[in-house]
Amino acid sequence: MRLIRLTLRHFRNYSSLAFEPAPGLNYLFGPNGAGKTNLLEAIHFLTRLRSFRRASRRVMIGEGQRGMYLRGEFHREGGAGRGVTLEAAVQDHERRYQVNGKEEEDLLSYLDQVHTAVFFPESLQIVKEGPGLRRAFFDRALAAENPAHLAGAREYNRLLAERNRLLKGGADSDILAVWDRRFLKSAARIVARRQRYLGSLRGHLALLERSLASALGQRIEIEYMAEGAGLPGETWERLAAGEEDPEAGAEAALQRSAERLAAEERRRGVTQWGPHLDDFRIRLGARRARGAASQGEQRLLMLALIIAAVGSFRGARGEEPIILLDDLSSELDERRRGDVLGHVAAMGAQVFITSTEGPGPLMGGADAGCFYIEDGVLGAR
Ligand SMILES: Nc1ncnc2c1ncn2[C@@H]1O[C@H](COP(=O)(O)OP(=O)(O)OP(=O)(O)O)[C@@H](O)[C@H]1O
Ligand SMILES: [Mg+2]
Fold first, then answer.
1. Which atom of ligand 1 has the smallest separation from the CA of 64?
2. In terms of CB atoms within 10 Å, which of 31, 63, 251, 323 comes out highest?
3. Is the dihedral of CA 312, 278, 117, 75 positive or negative?
């Protein structure tokens, strides 16, 4: 997918914007506070209906205004039908989301029209902070290429909440056993999907090792940790070893955890196992990235993960997501900045990249565009 025309009204510091980006790399630069991140946020909001900055809709409406309007015309490459136009209009507490001029009742179908992959400075927390952000990152990426994962995760969360209510209320163990049959299946499906997805990501990471090698310098390894089996330090891969079917393997392991932890959960009144507790361990070379990676290394690592996820998405869906990279190159040295920009420009997807610095000599080419932003006004350079 490529964004060919973006229209904004009263979005953040853009009172009015009409932007026709280039089909390849779009380099957006300008001083602090100019509106660079806001522009990426607008593309993200229009396609994902939420801000990557965790800002509410209210906060995004231009100061002093009661509403905002965003419209994007997207082109689908490769003959697979025509393009799509997305419109999002927010007025006071009302909101309208339209696909090709028609109101969308089903948000999931709106959200499945155009996919975006995003890096923004807070993405680094995925490496540094607790497991919740890592689960969210992998689950989102997985759900983008396989919407069934989103439905599965919703079902799981509902079953988990019910199970916790039962535990808290001291429900009879026979009743709990009935609940657990569905809960186990739902849990095992999530574990198996994540395992399969990680397999795909690893393949794409291995490809990057060749093409982004000089910037990365070290191997990236990811393990899917079975915290949700109540076994810290164990991986799902090892737990399900010997099983043909990862779902059956996960179910058997979860069943054993359920039995082992039954007494403890009754005492605590809250579920002690399940994929909502899992973690992903990321290694850069010999070390755990969480404690050891430098600022620049964390950026390269996240970028590699995002690019691997883009590759996996492309393989699964046969189309390109739009890539948003906010302030990616700060804290990268000159050589790595060049490697990264070169790689990103060669990817073939439409990319939006922001920086406070002007473009280097690498920028150019028929598919690329360079734009200067100041005070919510954008101009070509
Ligand atoms: N709802 C809003 N209405 C009007 N202006 C807003 C609104 N929300 C944020 N702004 C303004 O937008 C500007 C910030 O824009 P943005 O975050 O895009 O900057 P930036 O170009 O990415 O800067 P930096 O280089 O520092 O990251 C600030 O001046 C802020 O006051
Ligand atoms: Mg910014």
1. 3
2. 323
3. positive
Parse the chain into domains and list their residue ranges: 2-114+321-380, 127-290
CA 232 vs CA 50, 185, 222, 273, 276: distances in Å: 33, 22, 16, 11, 14
What are the φ/ψ torsions at residue 142 (nearest 5 degrees)?
Answer: -65, -45
The answer to whether 23 and 352 are in contact (CB under 8 A) is no
CB distance 87 to 59 below 8 Å = no
Q: Are 29 and 359 in contact (CB under 8 A)?
A: yes
* 117-167 per-position pLDDT tens digit: 999 999 999 999 999 999 999 999 999 999 999 999 999 999 999 999 999
| CATH number listed for the domain at residues 2-114+321-380 | 3.40.50.300
Residues with CB under 5 A from ligand 2 (ion): 37
Span from the CA of 121 to the centroid of ligand 2 (angstroms): 9
Q: Which atom of ligand 1 is nearest to the CA of 59?
A: 1
Q: Which two tokens stand for residue 149?
A: 């994962």
Residues of the chain with pLDDT under 70: 78-81, 361-363
pLDDT value of position 316:
96
